[in-house]
Structures are given as C-alpha cells and as structure tokens.
Amino acid sequence: MSLTASISHLPHLPSPILTAYIDINPGNPRNQSTPRGYMKWLKSTGRALSEELPPSERKAFETQLDRISRHLKTADPGSRGLVLFAGPQTWEEIPLQVEVRDELHWGKPSLQQMAWVLDEHRLRGAVLIDGSGARFLRFFLGTIAEDPPLEFTLDISSWRMPHMVKPSTSPVAKRAGIERDRVAARIEEQRKRFLKRLSDRIADWANEGQIRPVLLVGEAEEIEFVAQSMPEDLRDRIATLPKVLTRISSGEINKRLQPLLTSWEREYEAALVKDLISNEGSSHQAVTGLDETLDQIQKGNVRELVVARGLTGSVNQCVNCGWIDASGGPVCPVCGSGRQVRALRTVIPELALSQSAAIEIVAGKAASDLRTAGGIGAWLRTPMVASKGRKVS
Ligand SMILES: [Zn+2]
C-alpha cells in the first residue's frame, strides 16, 4: 500500500486532534543533546499553544500533549521525521524518512505539511521489458518495491512446426523459408499484442498508484511502441531508456535507475517552468508571481500550481470571507473585515485542495528559475496544446 493510500483516512479523524510534526533526525545537532532538542521544542511550543486556547479546551489539549511527550521519551528514532495524531479516541504515528519541519496544531487534523512531504517525495516507477515479459518497480523515499510481472509466453498450440533450414534456392528449401517467415510474422504479431496489453497495464498501474514518472526500460522500438500506445495525458510522464536489463536484482535496479529518474524529473521540471514563464501573460494559459496566482486560484481558474521547493513567506487571510492576498493592511479588500497572517506553506495546499488544483513542486534549476518569477505560478484551466514525452540518456 502506498503512503498516499495509507493516509487517506486522516482528514476524517474525529476532532479535536493534536497534530505534531517533529524533526527527530539524530543527524540534526539540536537532537544530539540531553534532553533531545525536539523534547525542549515540544515543551515550549506546547506551553505557548496552550495559553492561546480557550480555558475549556486546555485540559484536553494537555492530556494529548502529555501522551506525545511520554511517547517521544521512549521512542527509538529510527526515522528522520515523525507525524503524530493524538486525540481522545485516536493515536496514529507515521514515521518518515524525510526531514519535516516542527509543527504543532490543535483542532482538525493538520495535513498541510503532509501534502508537501508527499508531493516532494512522490512515488516513481520503472517497467523493465525483455523477452520474457515486464517487471514493475516502484520507488519511494529511497526504497524499492516490486509488483507482480506481466509474463510473455508464445502460444504455439495452433502452429504447424516449420523445418528450420537456411534460405536456399532449391524449391523445397524455399518453401521452408516461406514457412519460417510466416512463423516470424506470427511471433511478431503475438509480441505486438503483448506490448499493447502491457501499455494498458502500465497505464492502470501508474494511475492507481499515482506513480510518475514511469521509466520504460527495454529495446528501443518496443518501448517506443509501448509509450505511443499510452493515453496522451500519461505519455507526458513517461521517460524511456533504450537498454535491455535482464536478470538484474532490485538492489542493482535501484542503484542504476534512481539517478536517471531524478535527472529526468529535474529536466521535466525545468521544461515545465520554462513553458510556464514563456506562456505567462499573453496567451492566458499561465500566470506567475504570488499576487496573480493567488487571484486566479481563488477565482477557480487554476488547473495546476507550480511551486518552488522551500517557498516561504506569508499572506493575509480575511477572517470573514476567507479571501487571501499578499498585500499589507489589516482590512480585507473584498468585505472590509479583519485579517490574519498565515504562512504560505499552509495556505497553498489548502487552496489547491479546495479548488481541486494539482500541485507540482519543483527543485534544482527549475526552482531557481521560478524564484526569479516570484517562486510560484499556475497553469490555467484552458485547452492545452499536446505535449510530448522526452528521453533520458
Ligand atoms: Zn473578506
């Protein structure tokens, strides 16, 4: 089960819940002291949060804070980050092999940071195609898992077996040669049917598990055929590596393919940001910059948000109508009510979720290019031109 599937129940946990994201990474210097830095953080942040709560809620809050604190004292830090959901009838613990930022929330389960963690570390896949069939590999947070293969078997039950002789000019041998060509054609036909079935299977696999990109590894013509048989929207997330890797262990695959997937993603992201910036403005297909992006997404016009990893900063949100913008001032420009300051990191996933917009978080060159355009942008809900897959080498 993917992490995405295993957390789908979290938004429905009964309130009130104390949500804690805690950096317990033993490599973090603040966590090498006694008591651990994260224990000190929990204590002081918990005290500050408690003081902000209505007196009627403090007891319930402190009960859960105490549970988390006791748990952390004995917890073995086998992971870098920990997410805890604690409530009167709830205890959920999710260890993460990625760094998290310390956060403490009381009320509804807080999943915003989880949205970043999941998007930054999404499931990626590879399909290895050779003469015997196809292997399905999933990569997640540095680990690899293998799904059941799709085997290729030749069905020769209805065939008359040919005489396998070398081509010759004699009439008898010539007939055998024709037979052999017919066999080759039948094999090719069965192989084609297999590849067609394989592309359907890959599409289902990638859609169900939200796996992207998918790297196709195999003989050049075959992987091209498989990629071209995919639905358009998926083809865009297909990378290809024309190389037949037979009888290779999953550990070896991990070592060889992960770097390729990463570099493909970086290229994909850089191309995406380049497209975004060049389409911004004139074509009404895209916008960049915080003001314009916030405006468009709140009007329901955004199909996909593109965000530079590590985006910081804050915005103002109206306490009455909920309108968000980056302009200063204590009064909402829409309804004139008061406003509160909110971190972009929590606001962005909320907006994306409420407007059913996808989020693409970009790193590397793509992120630095995007930062020059405000660190954020969006594709608008307009018909897009067809895009094409790209190769890794
Ligand atoms: Zn307002």
Q: Rg from C-alpha positions?
A: 27 Å
Helix vs. strand class:
alpha+beta
> What's the total helix number?
11
Chain-averaged pLDDT? 85
What does this molecule look like?
The chain has helices spanning 3-6, 37-52, 55-74, 112-120, 171-208, 220-228, 232-235, 250-279, 290-298, 344-354, 364-371; strands spanning 17-23, 81-87, 90-96, 103-107, 124-130, 133-140, 143-151, 214-218, 238-242, 286-288, 302-308, 314-318, 324-325, 339-343, 358-362, 376-380, 390-391. The chain is an alpha+beta fold and 393 residues long. The protein folds into 3 domains: 3-120, Translation, Eukaryotic Peptide Chain Release Factor Subunit 1, Chain A (2-Layer Sandwich); 124-248, eRF1 domain 2 (Nucleotidyltransferase, domain 5), CATH 3.30.420; 272-391, 60s Ribosomal Protein L30, Chain: A (2-Layer Sandwich), CATH 3.30.1330.30. It has a 6-stranded mixed β-sheet, with helices on both faces. A 4-stranded antiparallel β-sheet has the order 3-2-1-4. It has a 4-stranded mixed β-sheet with strand order 10-16-11-15, with helices on both faces. Helix 4 (112-120) crosses helix 10 (344-354) and helix 5 (171-208) crosses helix 6 (220-228). The longest helix is centred in the middle third of the chain and has 38 residues, at 171-208. The model is unreliable at 383-393 (pLDDT under 50). Bound molecules: zinc ion.
Write the layout of secondary structure elements.
Elements: H1 3-6, E1 17-23, H2 37-52, H3 55-74, E2 81-87, E3 90-96, E4 103-107, H4 112-120, E5 124-130, E6 133-140, E7 143-151, H5 171-208, E8 214-218, H6 220-228, H7 232-235, E9 238-242, H8 250-279, E10 286-288, H9 290-298, E11 302-308, E12 314-318, E13 324-325, E14 339-343, H10 344-354, E15 358-362, H11 364-371, E16 376-380, E17 390-391
Parallel strand pairs: 5-8, 8-9, 9-17, 11-15
Antiparallel strand pairs: 1-2, 1-4, 2-3, 5-6, 6-7, 10-16, 11-16, 12-13, 12-14
Helix pairs in contact: 2-3, 4-10, 5-6, 8-11
